[in-house]
Design goal:
By secondary structure, the protein is mainly beta. It is 14% helix and 47% strand. The protein has nine helices and 26 strands. The strands form four sheets. It has an 18-stranded antiparallel beta barrel. A two-stranded antiparallel ribbon has the order 1-9. It has a two-stranded antiparallel ribbon with strand order 12-13. β16 and β17 form a beta hairpin. α2 packs across α3 and α3 packs antiparallel against α4. The protein is globular and about 70 Å long. The two termini are 48 Å apart.
Length: 567
């Protein structure tokens, strides 16, 4: 037994004994704009084999692509070269294994003597702590943001909110392969709580909905083993799954950050990804009393709910990438070992386990054969009957998405044009054998934000005229057909517009797209981001929203400004 344990430990640390990998094993958060830069480089043909259907990627992988771009920078514009130089500085330790382009307040080569002006205005990456040796690296950063926003219109009248958010990030790699990361922030706010809740990201904070508090917080953390050929991760962080520019089809930012186990195998032009995640069921409450106490207590409850998925992807250089994935949602029981198996056909496993769960398939394609243009498409199947595939039966449930990206349209440098169409048929994401096995987490769709019986056009234009200055304009046109209720709230027509309401035996067999109460929404958004001092950003935005149905129309204008820093 002792020999067995020693053998396991030896095999686990064997890769660390001959560290052939470079870079850090922790991941690059999905909000880092380096992903947009690399996607642009892939669209232009500067790099290939860039697997970005599942994000985040490791710092090691990102640094590898930046190194390739650096070796092929002759075709880059001046702004692209300057942007690349910023990223080469940010990832210099991952590329070179030295801290020469980093400035650390504690423990670094510049921690003893440095001028304030150089520390604030210099081009080196700034950290509270940056230390590394042959065994371990440690990087610690402070996070600080000041945000102010205003709204006027039909939703809230005229209101405003402000908040100060502060926290930190602590990350690094041990033995060359074991990455770790911990990030936490807390914010104190003033003004309208309802205005902050209209923010798609802030409304995921639990404490923002607690009416007797004036703060909200976020936390992420994980450990990750990177063995070059394969990697395993345990913890929580924001994860995106799918090719969509506006709304990924498999896993988007609609839901609160969740915990997961993830494993990846990457060999040349092939990549395999497995994930098992812990989601949240619908929010409810349980009332109870304690013997001898007449007080009625209320306990918040959520059903146990799980999401498992795996993806196979192949990249064909200068042609296209093609991917296939299976997903399952299951609930109301403990973790099922069948879905922890990374090498199983999920659909067959689900049938053998009593056909209680909600299984999906998705196929996607992304082209690379035309420099400067990228076409992408995804089709997701919730349920399919091949014999009646072209019939409008409600049980033929699917969604699809098609997108086009153009770099430097009309030969205008440093621009990116995107157009994307998403359509979700009625009754997609619902489930009639368990109310908790819908494709959702805590009352939000896990995939496309528009939900079932809806479609969306998303048009976007990004421009980076100068180093560290970016502008973006985005127009989104949504349509949805909602279920019809009477004045008492009773469902009188189920048209498949609510993922929490499955098809009932007496509902029509044939679906009609956009049937029911038609709701049309238009959003126009402009964003400006200026890094006026290295690692200090000034951001401003304006958002116009218009939502109309047969008997109402609602228009709102929201604008805001934020200053944030990482140091």
């Amino acid at each position: 037994m002792k020999f067995h344990h020693s053998l396991v430990l030896f095999l686990f640390f064997l890769p660390a004994l001959h560290d052939t990998a470079s870079g850090q094993a922790e991941t690059v958060p999905v909000r880092n704009p380096v992903y947009q830069f690399l996607d642009r480089m892939e669209t232009r043909g500067t790099i290939d084999g860039y697997f970005d259907a599942v994000l985040p990627l490791s710092r090691r992988e990102v640094a590898g692509f930046l190194k390739i771009v650096s070796s092929r920078d002759s075709a880059l514009t001046r702004t692209e070269k300057e942007t690349l130089d910023d990223y080469l500085s940010e990832f210099s330790f991952d590329l070179n294994g030295t801290l020469d382009r980093y400035r650390s307040l504690i423990g670094g080569p510049d921690s003893v003597s440095f001028s304030f002006s150089e520390s604030l205005f210099g081009s080196k990456e700034k950290y509270l702590l940056a230390v590394a040796d042959s065994m371990i690296s440690i990087f610690a950063s402070g996070l600080l943001a000041f945000d102010a926003r205003w709204i006027s219109g039909d939703a809230l009248g005229s209101e405003n909110s402000q908040y100060v958010q502060f926290g930190g990030r602590f990350r690094g790699t041990a033995f060359g392969h074991l990455g770790y990361s911990l990030e936490g922030t807390n914010a104190q706010f003033w003004g309208s709580r309802d205005l902050l809740l209209r923010d798609k990201m802030l409304n995921q904070a639990y404490t923002l909905r607690v009416t007797d508090t004036q703060n909200f917080d976020f936390a992420e953390g994980y450990v990750r083993y990177d063995g070059d050929l394969f990697s395993v991760q345990l913890g929580r962080e924001r994860l995106l799954w799918g090719l969509g520019y506006d709304q990924p089809m498999v896993a988007s930012q609609n839901v609160r950050v969740y915990d997961f186990i993830r494993a990846d195998v990457h060999y040349k032009r092939f990549r395999y990804t497995f994930m098992h995640a812990w989601l949240l069921g619908q929010a409810s409450k349980l009332s109870f009393t304690i013997p001898g106490d007449t007080t009625v207590y209320v306990e918040p409850t959520n059903a146990d709910k799980y999401f498992a998925a795996h993806r196979f992807e192949f990249s064909f250089p200068a042609l296209f990438d093609i991917g296939f994935q299976e997903m399952v949602i299951y609930s109301n029981r403990s973790v099922d070992l069948a879905y922890l198996n990374p090498l199983i056909v999920i659909e067959s496993a689900q049938r053998s386990r009593g056909e209680r769960d909600n299984v999906y398939w998705a196929f996607d394609l992304e082209t690379h054969f035309l420099s400067g243009m990228q076409l992408s498409g995804t089709i997701l199947f919730d349920d399919i009957h091949f014999g009646e595939f072209f019939e409008p039966r409600w049980y033929n449930r699917y969604a699809y998405q098609a997108g086009l990206a153009l770099t430097d349209p009309l030969f205008l440098p440093n621009m990116l044009f995107i157009v994307e169409y998403t359509r979700v048929e009625p009754f997609v994401f619902s489930h009639n054998r368990s109310r908790e096995s819908t494709y959702s987490s805590l009352d939000a769709v896990l995939g496309p934000r528009i939900g079932p019986n809806a479609d969306s056009w998303h048009i976007r234009l990004d421009w980076t005229p100068l180093k560290r200055l970016s502008l973006s304009g985005r127009l989104t046109l949504d349509r949805s057909g909602e279920n019809v209720y009477d004045s008492a709230g009773t469902l009188i027509r189920n048209v498949g517009g609510d993922y929490q309401q499955p098809h009932r035996p007496d509902d029509p067999v044939d679906r009609v797209f956009l049937d029911g109460t038609l709701v049309e929404a238009t959003t126009l958004e402009t964003l400006v981001t200026w890094e006026f001092v290295h690692q200090i950003w000034l951001e401003g935005w304006y958002l116009f929203e218009s939502v109309s149905s047969t008997d109402s129309e609602n228009q709102n204008n929201t604008w805001g400004v934020r200053v944030r820093t990482e140091f």
